[in-house]
Amino acid sequence: MIHGVPLPDGHLRVHRAPGHTVMEFHGEIDIAAALAILPTLDATTKPPKTLLVIDLTPTTFLDCSGLALLCRARTRLEERDGDLLLVCPHPLILRMLRILGLTTRLRPSPTLEDALRGHLRAAG
User: Fold this and answer.
1) How many C-beta atoms surround the C-beta of residue 43 within 10 A?
2) Domain 12-123 classification at class level
3) Where are its TM segments located (predicted)?
4) Which of 16, 43, 87, 88 is spaced 20 to 30 A from 115 at the CA atom?
5) What is the Cα–Cα distance from 58 to 80, expressed in whole angstroms?
6) Is the pTM of this model over 0.85?
């Protein structure tokens, strides 16, 4: 993965910024996309104290495989004293997160700026 360049399957773009990494999920995140994203997700969540932002803004569909990626990232980061910020402006995905009781665990924000600002407030 080259900085800011999508993977060949087109479902993931990674941007590294000072203090955090942003993973944008693009298009339909189904089981095939999740399997393609998983190695990069695991590599990104391996170091201790990582701050990872998963941005679902470019996502058009998210099934249970995509939800599993989000939960896996949260768990791996918690185990390593890191944190996950989720950007999700999509009403249907937010509704699914609420129905499944995941909004407290994943704490979605509508924009990247809101997610980072909320993290700074919580850390400050």
Assistant:
1) 11
2) alpha beta
3) none
4) 43
5) 28
6) yes
Residues 6+ apart with CB under 8 A from 108: 86, 87, 88, 94, 97
Q: Is the pLDDT of residue 8 over 70?
A: no
Residue 22's CB is within 10 A of a number of other CB atoms, namely 20
- Tokens 């399997």 — which residue? 35
The first and second tokens of residue 46, run together, are: 């391996």
Question: Mutual orientation of helices 31-44 and 64-79 as an angle, nearest 10°?
Answer: 10
Give tens-digit pLDDT for 66-89.
999 999 999 999 999 999 999 999
Domain ranges of the chain: 12-123
Q: Quote the pLDDT of residue 9.
A: 66
pLDDT tens per residue across span 92-118: 999 999 999 999 999 999 999 999 998
**At which residue do the structure tokens 């900085």 appear?**
3
Q: Where are the alpha helices (DSSP H) in 1-124?
A: 31-44, 64-79, 91-99, 103-106, 112-123
